[in-house]
DNA sequence: TTCATTTGACCCTG
DNA sequence: CAGGGTCAAATGAA
C-alpha cells in the first residue's frame, strides 16, 4: 500500500516534471525550423503528462471508486513499483510463486500488487466471432456478480502450468450494452506467447452466440481456442497475426460513454501502461509512424515519456514483450482500430529488431534526442 | 486419450 | 457474513 502511494507520488512528480521539461524543449523548438510533427509530438507529451498527473490526483480523491469496472476505461494502475523498481512488481510474481509453493492447491485469492489492464471492446457485428487478443486463454471459472446482470468469466493463460505464466483476465459483459465487454487483464505473460505477441492491446471478445473454433463451448465467455504446438513460436506468432487480423475486422474499442477527459485526447496510456503497450507494438509502431498521424500521436504520447518509469525504454536496445501492466484508456474511433491492427499485422515480419525495454525505473535523460531524425524509422 | 469448459464448492478479503 | 476469485471433479469434444 505504501509502495503504491509512493509510486503514485513519484509518477505524479515525474509527469509534472516531464510536462515542464517537454514544454521547455518545445519552447526551444519553436525557434528552430523543426517539423510541425515534432512540435505536435511534444505537445502530445505535455498534454499526456498533465492528464496523467491529474488522473492520479483524481484517483487519490476516490481511490475506492477507481477499482470498479467503470463505463470508462480507466483506473489507475494497481501495480506499484517494486523494490527493485519494476513497474510490474516482483512481489506480484512472488505472490503467485508463493501460492504455488506453499500449498499445492491453495484457493487463496490473489492479492497484493495487481497489474491490471482494463479495456472495453465491443463486437461490431454484435454476435460474431472469433476475436482474440493474441494469447491463449483457458477459462477456469465463471461467477455471477451481484452488481452485474451477466456473469463474469475468469481466464488464465493456457501455458500457466507448462510455462509458469500467471497472466489472467476477467471478462465481464456490459450491463448497458451486451455487445460490449469489459476485460480486465491481470499479471503479465511470461510464456512464449508474451514474447510473440504482436497485438497493440489485448481485447478479447466474449460471445454468447457463435463459437467457430470450439463448437462445444456453450453460453458465456467463449474464448476461441485452437490447440497448436506450444513449442512452435513461429507458428504461434503467425497464428496470432491471423487471429488478430480476424479480430480487427469485427471488433472495435468502445468509444461511447467515455468521459470527456478521455475523449479529449486521441489516445492515452498512463505511465505504467507503456511497457505493455510497447511490447504489443514492438514491431509496428515505429515503422508506421511516419505515415500515420494517428499512430504518430499515439507513439508520441506514450512512447515518449521521458520521466515515467518506462520512458527509459528509449535508451534501451531491447523492449520486453512480457512486461505489460497497469491499465490504459483507448478512446479510439471505430475506424482507427482496424487500421492499427492491420498495420500491425502487416509489418510484423519486417526486420525490425526485437526491442526489449526494461521496466526498471531509470532516471530519464532529459537530453534524450527525441527529435533525432530517423528516431521513429 | 487429451484437453477445454462447466459448475459447485471452497476460501479469502473487506 | 457477503461477495468475489480460484480450484477441481465432472463432462464433453476432438
Automatic annotation (TrEMBL):
Lineage, broadest ranks: Eukaryota, Viridiplantae, Streptophyta, Embryophyta, Tracheophyta
Region (Disordered): 66-92
Parts forming coiled coils: none
Regions crossing the membrane: none
Annotated keywords: DNA-binding, Nucleus, Transcription, Transcription regulation
GO CC entries: nucleus
PROSITE patterns attached to this UniProt entry: WRKY
Pfam families to which the protein is assigned, alphabetical: WRKY (PF03106)
Similarity section: Belongs to the WRKY group III family.
Localisation per UniProt entry: Nucleus
Protein name stated in the entry: WRKY domain-containing protein
Main location: nucleus
Residue intervals of the WRKY domain: 126-189
Compositionally biased intervals (Polar residues): 66-87
Species of provenance: Vicia faba (Broad bean)
GO molecular function, one term: DNA-binding transcription factor activity
Gene Ontology process terms (BP): leaf senescence; response to hydrogen peroxide; response to ozone; response to salicylic acid
The organism's place on the tree of life at top rank: Eukaryota
